[in-house]
Amino acid sequence: MSKKTKTAFVCEECGADYPRWNGQCTACGAWNSIKEVRLGAGKSERNKRTDGYSGIRSSVQALSDVDLAQAERLSTGISEFDRVLGGGVVRGSVTLIGGAPGAGKSTILLQAIADMARRGIDVLYVSGEESLQQIAERAHRLNVSGERINMLAETSVQNVCDVLDDINPQVLVVDSIQVMYTQDTDSAPGSVSQVRESASYLTQYAKRHNVSVFLVGHVTKDQSLAGPMTLSHIVDTQVVLSSTNDARFRVLRADKNRFGSVGELGFFAMDSTGLKEVKNPSAMFLNRAEKPSSGSVVTVLWEGTRPLLVEIQALVTECQYGNPRRLAVGFDQNRLAMLLAILSRHGGIFTANDEIYANVVGGIKVTETSSDLAIVVGIVSSLKDKIIPHDTFFFGELGLNGEIRPVANGLARINDAAKHGFKKAVIPKSNAPKKAIEGLRIYPVANLAEALDVLGEVEC
Predict the structure, then answer these.
(1) pTM higher than 0.90 for the full model?
(2) Pick from 78, 95, 217, 234: CA 20 to 30 A from residue 251's CA?
(3) Domain assignment of residue 340, given as a range
(4) Which segments of 258-324 are extended strands (E)?
Protein backbone atom coordinates (compact mmCIF):
# COMPACT_ATOMS: atom_id res chain seq x y z
CA MET A 1 0.00 0.00 0.00
CA SER A 2 1.47 3.33 -1.04
CA LYS A 3 2.17 5.99 1.53
CA LYS A 4 -0.24 8.91 1.69
CA THR A 5 1.18 12.09 0.21
CA LYS A 6 1.46 14.82 2.84
CA THR A 7 0.53 18.40 2.05
CA ALA A 8 1.26 21.76 3.59
CA PHE A 9 0.09 25.31 2.97
CA VAL A 10 2.92 27.82 2.53
CA CYS A 11 2.87 31.58 1.90
CA GLU A 12 4.77 32.39 -1.31
CA GLU A 13 5.70 35.84 0.04
CA CYS A 14 7.23 35.07 3.44
CA GLY A 15 7.32 31.26 3.72
CA ALA A 16 4.95 30.98 6.70
CA ASP A 17 3.34 27.53 7.13
CA TYR A 18 -0.34 26.90 7.87
CA PRO A 19 -2.32 23.71 8.61
CA ARG A 20 -5.07 24.76 6.19
CA TRP A 21 -5.64 27.32 3.43
CA ASN A 22 -6.32 30.95 4.39
CA GLY A 23 -7.21 33.92 2.21
CA GLN A 24 -4.66 36.16 3.92
CA CYS A 25 -1.27 35.40 5.41
CA THR A 26 -1.32 36.58 9.03
CA ALA A 27 2.50 36.82 9.07
CA CYS A 28 3.07 39.27 6.19
CA GLY A 29 -0.49 40.40 5.39
CA ALA A 30 -0.42 39.29 1.74
CA TRP A 31 -3.69 38.14 0.13
CA ASN A 32 -4.07 34.95 -1.93
CA SER A 33 -0.41 34.07 -1.41
CA ILE A 34 -0.93 30.76 0.45
CA LYS A 35 -0.49 27.76 -1.83
CA GLU A 36 -0.78 24.04 -1.22
CA VAL A 37 2.54 22.20 -1.40
CA ARG A 38 2.84 18.44 -1.67
CA LEU A 39 5.56 16.95 0.45
CA GLY A 40 7.47 13.92 -0.77
CA ALA A 41 6.90 10.60 0.97
CA GLY A 42 10.56 10.51 1.95
CA LYS A 43 13.80 12.35 1.51
CA SER A 44 16.50 11.11 -0.81
CA GLU A 45 19.54 9.42 0.69
CA ARG A 46 21.76 12.34 -0.37
CA ASN A 47 19.59 14.92 1.37
CA LYS A 48 19.55 13.42 4.86
CA ARG A 49 20.40 16.10 7.42
CA THR A 50 20.57 14.12 10.64
CA ASP A 51 24.29 14.87 10.81
CA GLY A 52 23.96 18.62 10.20
CA TYR A 53 25.37 20.76 7.39
CA SER A 54 28.94 19.64 8.00
CA GLY A 55 28.08 15.99 7.30
CA ILE A 56 29.40 14.74 10.63
CA ARG A 57 27.79 14.50 14.04
CA SER A 58 29.04 17.27 16.30
CA SER A 59 30.53 16.39 19.69
CA VAL A 60 30.50 18.46 22.85
CA GLN A 61 33.73 20.31 23.60
CA ALA A 62 34.91 23.26 25.66
CA LEU A 63 34.94 26.65 23.95
CA SER A 64 38.60 27.10 24.89
CA ASP A 65 39.46 23.90 22.98
CA VAL A 66 37.98 25.07 19.67
CA ASP A 67 40.59 25.42 16.91
CA LEU A 68 41.17 29.11 16.17
CA ALA A 69 43.00 28.52 12.88
CA GLN A 70 41.94 31.13 10.35
CA ALA A 71 39.69 29.87 7.59
CA GLU A 72 41.42 29.38 4.24
CA ARG A 73 40.47 31.99 1.65
CA LEU A 74 40.60 32.03 -2.13
CA SER A 75 41.23 35.33 -3.89
CA THR A 76 38.79 36.20 -6.65
CA GLY A 77 41.48 38.20 -8.45
CA ILE A 78 39.33 41.34 -8.04
CA SER A 79 40.59 43.36 -5.07
CA GLU A 80 37.33 45.29 -4.60
CA PHE A 81 35.38 42.02 -4.58
CA ASP A 82 37.84 40.51 -2.08
CA ARG A 83 37.49 43.61 0.13
CA VAL A 84 33.71 43.21 0.34
CA LEU A 85 34.06 39.48 1.09
CA GLY A 86 36.50 40.23 3.91
CA GLY A 87 39.73 39.28 2.13
CA GLY A 88 38.56 36.62 -0.32
CA VAL A 89 36.04 33.79 -0.42
CA VAL A 90 36.29 31.30 2.46
CA ARG A 91 36.57 27.62 1.56
CA GLY A 92 33.26 25.86 2.14
CA SER A 93 31.28 29.11 2.43
CA VAL A 94 28.10 30.08 0.58
CA THR A 95 27.86 33.60 -0.85
CA LEU A 96 24.62 35.05 -2.20
CA ILE A 97 25.01 37.91 -4.69
CA GLY A 98 21.85 39.82 -5.56
CA GLY A 99 21.03 42.73 -7.80
CA ALA A 100 18.63 44.11 -10.38
CA PRO A 101 18.66 42.77 -13.96
CA GLY A 102 21.64 44.19 -15.85
CA ALA A 103 23.56 45.16 -12.70
CA GLY A 104 26.42 42.84 -13.63
CA LYS A 105 26.04 39.85 -11.29
CA SER A 106 26.89 37.23 -13.90
CA THR A 107 29.62 39.46 -15.33
CA ILE A 108 31.55 39.91 -12.10
CA LEU A 109 31.28 36.21 -11.25
CA LEU A 110 32.46 35.19 -14.72
CA GLN A 111 35.45 37.53 -14.41
CA ALA A 112 36.23 36.18 -10.93
CA ILE A 113 36.10 32.47 -11.81
CA ALA A 114 38.12 33.10 -14.99
CA ASP A 115 40.93 34.52 -12.84
CA MET A 116 40.61 31.61 -10.42
CA ALA A 117 40.73 29.07 -13.23
CA ARG A 118 43.83 30.76 -14.66
CA ARG A 119 45.52 30.22 -11.28
CA GLY A 120 44.69 26.51 -11.33
CA ILE A 121 41.54 26.53 -9.19
CA ASP A 122 38.88 24.11 -10.47
CA VAL A 123 35.52 25.86 -10.98
CA LEU A 124 32.07 24.87 -12.21
CA TYR A 125 29.54 27.39 -13.57
CA VAL A 126 25.96 26.08 -13.47
CA SER A 127 23.52 28.02 -15.62
CA GLY A 128 19.80 27.54 -15.14
CA GLU A 129 18.61 30.56 -17.14
CA GLU A 130 21.00 31.13 -20.04
CA SER A 131 22.28 28.65 -22.57
CA LEU A 132 25.97 27.77 -22.60
CA GLN A 133 26.28 29.56 -25.95
CA GLN A 134 25.02 32.81 -24.41
CA ILE A 135 27.57 32.55 -21.63
CA ALA A 136 30.33 31.78 -24.13
CA GLU A 137 29.37 34.90 -26.10
CA ARG A 138 29.56 37.00 -22.93
CA ALA A 139 32.97 35.53 -22.08
CA HIS A 140 34.19 36.41 -25.58
CA ARG A 141 32.92 39.98 -25.20
CA LEU A 142 34.69 40.29 -21.85
CA ASN A 143 37.92 38.82 -23.28
CA VAL A 144 37.68 36.01 -20.73
CA SER A 145 39.49 32.79 -21.48
CA GLY A 146 37.18 29.83 -20.90
CA GLU A 147 39.70 27.02 -21.34
CA ARG A 148 39.67 25.90 -17.69
CA ILE A 149 36.08 26.88 -16.81
CA ASN A 150 33.69 23.93 -16.57
CA MET A 151 30.12 24.72 -17.66
CA LEU A 152 26.84 22.94 -16.94
CA ALA A 153 23.25 23.75 -17.95
CA GLU A 154 21.11 22.22 -15.20
CA THR A 155 18.33 23.18 -12.78
CA SER A 156 18.13 20.08 -10.54
CA VAL A 157 20.29 20.42 -7.43
CA GLN A 158 20.55 16.62 -7.15
CA ASN A 159 21.98 16.40 -10.67
CA VAL A 160 24.34 19.30 -9.96
CA CYS A 161 25.67 17.52 -6.87
CA ASP A 162 26.17 14.32 -8.89
CA VAL A 163 28.35 16.28 -11.32
CA LEU A 164 30.22 17.85 -8.41
CA ASP A 165 31.02 14.38 -7.10
CA ASP A 166 32.53 13.49 -10.48
CA ILE A 167 34.76 16.55 -11.06
CA ASN A 168 35.36 17.78 -7.46
CA PRO A 169 35.68 21.54 -8.12
CA GLN A 170 36.79 24.03 -5.48
CA VAL A 171 34.34 26.76 -6.55
CA LEU A 172 30.72 26.47 -7.71
CA VAL A 173 28.60 29.23 -9.27
CA VAL A 174 24.82 28.73 -9.50
CA ASP A 175 23.00 31.22 -11.74
CA SER A 176 20.42 31.53 -10.36
CA ILE A 177 18.99 30.02 -7.18
CA GLN A 178 15.45 31.05 -8.19
CA VAL A 179 15.37 28.55 -11.07
CA MET A 180 16.85 25.61 -9.18
CA TYR A 181 14.64 22.85 -7.78
CA THR A 182 14.97 19.79 -5.61
CA GLN A 183 13.18 16.57 -6.53
CA ASP A 184 12.02 16.09 -2.94
CA THR A 185 9.70 19.12 -3.04
CA ASP A 186 6.64 19.03 -5.28
CA SER A 187 6.28 22.72 -6.14
CA ALA A 188 7.29 24.92 -9.04
CA PRO A 189 10.85 26.30 -9.28
CA GLY A 190 11.02 29.81 -7.85
CA SER A 191 8.45 29.11 -5.13
CA VAL A 192 9.33 29.79 -1.51
CA SER A 193 9.71 26.14 -0.62
CA GLN A 194 11.88 25.33 -3.67
CA VAL A 195 14.23 28.28 -3.14
CA ARG A 196 14.59 27.46 0.54
CA GLU A 197 15.16 23.74 0.03
CA SER A 198 17.53 24.21 -2.93
CA ALA A 199 19.67 26.68 -0.98
CA SER A 200 19.74 24.36 2.04
CA TYR A 201 20.67 21.43 -0.18
CA LEU A 202 23.61 23.26 -1.80
CA THR A 203 24.75 24.67 1.54
CA GLN A 204 24.82 21.20 3.04
CA TYR A 205 26.96 19.99 0.15
CA ALA A 206 29.31 22.99 0.42
CA LYS A 207 29.95 22.42 4.12
CA ARG A 208 30.44 18.69 3.74
CA HIS A 209 32.80 18.84 0.74
CA ASN A 210 34.52 22.20 1.44
CA VAL A 211 33.31 23.76 -1.83
CA SER A 212 32.96 27.55 -2.09
CA VAL A 213 29.53 28.32 -3.56
CA PHE A 214 28.27 31.52 -5.20
CA LEU A 215 24.49 31.80 -5.58
CA VAL A 216 23.01 34.45 -7.89
CA GLY A 217 19.73 35.86 -6.59
CA HIS A 218 17.10 38.09 -8.16
CA VAL A 219 15.56 41.13 -6.50
CA THR A 220 11.96 42.29 -6.36
CA LYS A 221 10.65 45.60 -7.72
CA ASP A 222 11.37 47.26 -4.36
CA GLN A 223 15.04 46.15 -4.66
CA SER A 224 14.83 43.56 -1.87
CA LEU A 225 16.10 40.02 -2.38
CA ALA A 226 13.47 37.74 -3.88
CA GLY A 227 12.57 34.55 -2.05
CA PRO A 228 12.04 33.62 1.59
CA MET A 229 13.85 35.45 4.39
CA THR A 230 15.33 32.11 5.40
CA LEU A 231 17.50 32.32 2.28
CA SER A 232 19.46 35.15 3.91
CA HIS A 233 19.78 33.13 7.11
CA ILE A 234 21.10 30.05 5.32
CA VAL A 235 23.99 31.67 3.43
CA ASP A 236 27.24 32.85 5.06
CA THR A 237 27.60 36.06 3.06
CA GLN A 238 25.07 38.22 1.26
CA VAL A 239 26.20 40.99 -1.09
CA VAL A 240 24.16 43.25 -3.37
CA LEU A 241 25.36 44.80 -6.63
CA SER A 242 23.54 48.02 -7.49
CA SER A 243 23.83 50.99 -9.82
CA THR A 244 24.48 54.58 -8.81
CA ASN A 245 22.78 57.62 -10.32
CA ASP A 246 25.47 57.46 -12.99
CA ALA A 247 24.70 54.24 -14.88
CA ARG A 248 28.40 53.69 -15.59
CA PHE A 249 29.20 52.83 -11.97
CA ARG A 250 28.27 49.91 -9.73
CA VAL A 251 28.45 49.57 -5.95
CA LEU A 252 28.88 46.19 -4.26
CA ARG A 253 27.72 46.17 -0.62
CA ALA A 254 27.95 43.43 1.99
CA ASP A 255 24.64 43.14 3.87
CA LYS A 256 25.70 40.03 5.79
CA ASN A 257 29.15 38.51 6.28
CA ARG A 258 30.10 35.85 8.80
CA PHE A 259 33.76 36.20 7.82
CA GLY A 260 34.17 39.97 7.52
CA SER A 261 32.67 43.38 8.21
CA VAL A 262 29.11 44.26 7.25
CA GLY A 263 28.59 47.42 5.21
CA GLU A 264 31.85 47.12 3.28
CA LEU A 265 31.64 48.70 -0.18
CA GLY A 266 33.34 47.89 -3.45
CA PHE A 267 33.21 50.26 -6.44
CA PHE A 268 33.26 49.34 -10.13
CA ALA A 269 32.88 51.00 -13.50
CA MET A 270 30.97 49.18 -16.24
CA ASP A 271 32.22 49.31 -19.83
CA SER A 272 32.10 47.11 -22.92
CA THR A 273 34.73 44.75 -21.48
CA GLY A 274 33.06 44.20 -18.11
CA LEU A 275 33.44 45.61 -14.62
CA LYS A 276 36.59 47.55 -13.81
CA GLU A 277 37.70 48.37 -10.28
CA VAL A 278 37.56 51.99 -9.12
CA LYS A 279 40.62 52.50 -6.94
CA ASN A 280 39.67 56.04 -5.86
CA PRO A 281 35.90 56.04 -5.21
CA SER A 282 35.98 59.51 -3.63
CA ALA A 283 36.87 61.00 -7.02
CA MET A 284 33.84 59.22 -8.46
CA PHE A 285 31.46 61.05 -6.09
CA LEU A 286 33.24 64.44 -6.10
CA ASN A 287 32.71 65.37 -9.74
CA ARG A 288 31.54 68.85 -8.75
CA ALA A 289 30.69 71.86 -10.89
CA GLU A 290 33.59 74.18 -11.68
CA LYS A 291 31.72 77.20 -10.30
CA PRO A 292 30.90 76.88 -6.56
CA SER A 293 27.27 77.26 -5.60
CA SER A 294 25.40 77.64 -2.33
CA GLY A 295 24.03 74.56 -0.61
CA SER A 296 26.91 72.30 -1.74
CA VAL A 297 29.03 70.78 1.07
CA VAL A 298 31.56 67.93 1.23
CA THR A 299 31.66 65.42 4.08
CA VAL A 300 33.72 62.31 4.81
CA LEU A 301 31.79 59.09 5.44
CA TRP A 302 33.22 55.85 6.78
CA GLU A 303 32.12 52.90 4.67
CA GLY A 304 33.32 49.51 5.87
CA THR A 305 37.05 49.94 6.43
CA ARG A 306 37.80 53.10 4.47
CA PRO A 307 36.80 56.78 4.24
CA LEU A 308 34.67 58.08 1.40
CA LEU A 309 34.27 61.73 0.40
CA VAL A 310 30.82 62.63 -0.88
CA GLU A 311 28.97 65.82 -1.75
CA ILE A 312 25.76 66.77 0.02
CA GLN A 313 23.45 69.28 -1.62
CA ALA A 314 20.68 71.24 0.09
CA LEU A 315 18.02 73.51 -1.37
CA VAL A 316 15.89 75.86 0.71
CA THR A 317 13.08 77.61 -1.13
CA GLU A 318 10.01 79.61 -0.18
CA CYS A 319 6.90 77.53 0.34
CA GLN A 320 4.29 78.15 -2.35
CA TYR A 321 1.53 76.26 -0.58
CA GLY A 322 0.34 75.86 2.99
CA ASN A 323 2.34 72.76 3.90
CA PRO A 324 6.15 73.04 3.45
CA ARG A 325 7.85 69.87 2.21
CA ARG A 326 10.94 68.25 3.73
CA LEU A 327 12.51 65.72 1.38
CA ALA A 328 15.71 63.74 2.05
CA VAL A 329 17.33 61.47 -0.54
CA GLY A 330 20.19 59.26 0.61
CA PHE A 331 19.60 59.48 4.36
CA ASP A 332 16.82 59.18 6.93
CA GLN A 333 13.98 61.66 6.48
CA ASN A 334 13.28 61.66 10.22
CA ARG A 335 16.86 62.68 10.91
CA LEU A 336 16.43 65.69 8.63
CA ALA A 337 13.43 66.79 10.71
CA MET A 338 15.48 66.38 13.90
CA LEU A 339 18.41 68.42 12.51
CA LEU A 340 16.03 71.22 11.53
CA ALA A 341 14.69 71.29 15.08
CA ILE A 342 18.27 71.49 16.47
CA LEU A 343 19.07 74.28 14.00
CA SER A 344 16.04 76.23 15.16
CA ARG A 345 16.58 75.72 18.89
CA HIS A 346 20.38 76.07 19.15
CA GLY A 347 21.28 77.91 15.95
CA GLY A 348 18.56 80.54 15.93
CA ILE A 349 17.72 79.82 12.27
CA PHE A 350 14.04 79.16 11.59
CA THR A 351 12.90 77.22 8.51
CA ALA A 352 9.31 76.39 9.46
CA ASN A 353 7.90 78.28 6.46
CA ASP A 354 10.44 77.02 3.89
CA GLU A 355 10.58 73.91 1.75
CA ILE A 356 13.83 71.98 2.27
CA TYR A 357 15.35 69.37 -0.02
CA ALA A 358 18.57 67.48 0.79
CA ASN A 359 20.40 64.97 -1.39
CA VAL A 360 23.52 62.81 -1.18
CA VAL A 361 25.13 63.03 -4.62
CA GLY A 362 25.95 59.78 -6.41
CA GLY A 363 23.24 57.55 -4.97
CA ILE A 364 25.14 56.70 -1.78
CA LYS A 365 22.99 55.76 1.23
CA VAL A 366 24.25 57.40 4.43
CA THR A 367 23.80 55.04 7.38
CA GLU A 368 25.91 56.86 9.97
CA THR A 369 25.52 60.18 11.81
CA SER A 370 28.83 61.80 10.84
CA SER A 371 27.10 63.78 8.06
CA ASP A 372 24.88 65.76 10.48
CA LEU A 373 27.09 68.86 10.52
CA ALA A 374 27.49 68.88 6.73
CA ILE A 375 23.72 68.65 6.20
CA VAL A 376 23.02 71.56 8.55
CA VAL A 377 25.78 73.66 6.98
CA GLY A 378 24.36 72.93 3.52
CA ILE A 379 20.89 74.07 4.63
CA VAL A 380 22.28 77.29 6.12
CA SER A 381 24.39 77.89 3.00
CA SER A 382 21.36 77.58 0.74
CA LEU A 383 19.09 79.62 3.02
CA LYS A 384 21.53 82.55 3.21
CA ASP A 385 22.89 82.04 -0.32
CA LYS A 386 26.45 81.79 1.03
CA ILE A 387 28.95 79.69 -0.94
CA ILE A 388 31.14 77.12 0.80
CA PRO A 389 34.55 76.79 -0.94
CA HIS A 390 35.38 73.56 -2.72
CA ASP A 391 38.45 73.03 -0.52
CA THR A 392 36.46 72.81 2.75
CA PHE A 393 34.88 69.73 4.30
CA PHE A 394 32.72 69.07 7.37
CA PHE A 395 31.87 66.11 9.55
CA GLY A 396 30.41 65.60 13.02
CA GLU A 397 27.33 64.30 14.80
CA LEU A 398 24.83 66.75 16.27
CA GLY A 399 23.26 66.10 19.67
CA LEU A 400 19.87 67.35 20.75
CA ASN A 401 21.53 69.92 23.00
CA GLY A 402 23.39 71.43 20.08
CA GLU A 403 26.73 69.81 20.91
CA ILE A 404 28.90 68.40 18.11
CA ARG A 405 29.96 64.89 19.03
CA PRO A 406 33.10 63.12 17.75
CA VAL A 407 32.89 60.34 15.17
CA ALA A 408 34.88 57.14 14.74
CA ASN A 409 38.09 57.09 12.67
CA GLY A 410 38.30 60.89 12.66
CA LEU A 411 42.03 61.08 11.92
CA ALA A 412 41.76 58.68 8.97
CA ARG A 413 38.95 60.81 7.50
CA ILE A 414 41.03 63.99 7.88
CA ASN A 415 44.12 62.44 6.26
CA ASP A 416 42.12 61.11 3.33
CA ALA A 417 40.55 64.52 2.67
CA ALA A 418 43.99 66.18 2.88
CA LYS A 419 45.30 63.74 0.23
CA HIS A 420 42.49 64.90 -2.08
CA GLY A 421 43.59 68.52 -1.83
CA PHE A 422 41.23 69.91 0.81
CA LYS A 423 42.63 72.89 2.74
CA LYS A 424 40.07 73.56 5.50
CA ALA A 425 38.26 71.23 7.89
CA VAL A 426 35.42 72.00 10.29
CA ILE A 427 35.29 69.04 12.65
CA PRO A 428 34.33 68.12 16.24
CA LYS A 429 36.74 69.43 18.85
CA SER A 430 37.35 65.92 20.15
CA ASN A 431 38.45 64.76 16.67
CA ALA A 432 41.07 67.51 16.26
CA PRO A 433 44.52 65.96 15.61
CA LYS A 434 47.24 66.59 18.17
CA LYS A 435 49.79 67.31 15.45
CA ALA A 436 49.28 69.81 12.66
CA ILE A 437 48.68 68.42 9.17
CA GLU A 438 50.64 70.20 6.47
CA GLY A 439 48.46 72.23 4.10
CA LEU A 440 45.27 71.71 6.14
CA ARG A 441 43.73 74.25 8.51
CA ILE A 442 41.59 72.74 11.24
CA TYR A 443 38.55 74.51 12.75
CA PRO A 444 37.59 72.47 15.86
CA VAL A 445 34.06 73.25 17.09
CA ALA A 446 32.26 72.09 20.22
CA ASN A 447 28.68 73.09 19.42
CA LEU A 448 26.44 74.29 16.62
CA ALA A 449 26.79 77.96 17.52
CA GLU A 450 30.58 77.76 17.11
CA ALA A 451 30.20 75.95 13.77
CA LEU A 452 27.90 78.67 12.43
CA ASP A 453 30.37 81.34 13.54
CA VAL A 454 33.16 79.56 11.67
CA LEU A 455 31.15 79.67 8.43
CA GLY A 456 31.93 83.37 8.13
CA GLU A 457 35.65 82.55 8.01
CA VAL A 458 35.46 79.80 5.39
CA GLU A 459 32.85 81.31 3.04
CA CYS A 460 33.91 82.45 -0.42
Answers:
(1) no
(2) 234
(3) 284-458
(4) 265-271, 274-277, 296-303, 306-318
In a domain, 64, yes or no: no
Which CATH number is 454's domain given?
Answer: 3.30.230.10
**How many structural domains are present in the chain?**
3
**Helix, coil or strand: residue 128:** coil
Residues 271 and 288 in one domain: no
Burial of 57 (C-beta count, 10 Å sphere; 0-12/13-18/19+): exposed
Distance CA 426, CA 441 (A): 9
Residues in the chain: 460
Binding site, annotated residues = 99-106
**Furthest-apart CA atoms within the chain: distance in Å:** 90
Amino acid at 8: A
Mean pLDDT by 10 residues, the chain (460 residues): 61 79 85 73 48 62 79 92 94 94 92 94 94 92 87 95 95 94 83 89 93 91 74 93 80 92 89 89 77 92 90 92 89 95 95 93 88 97 94 96 96 94 96 93 96 84
Which is nearest to 76 in space by CA: 173, 188, 165? Answer: 173
Beta strand pairing call for 171-175 and 17-18:
unpaired
Binding site feature residues for ATP: 99-106
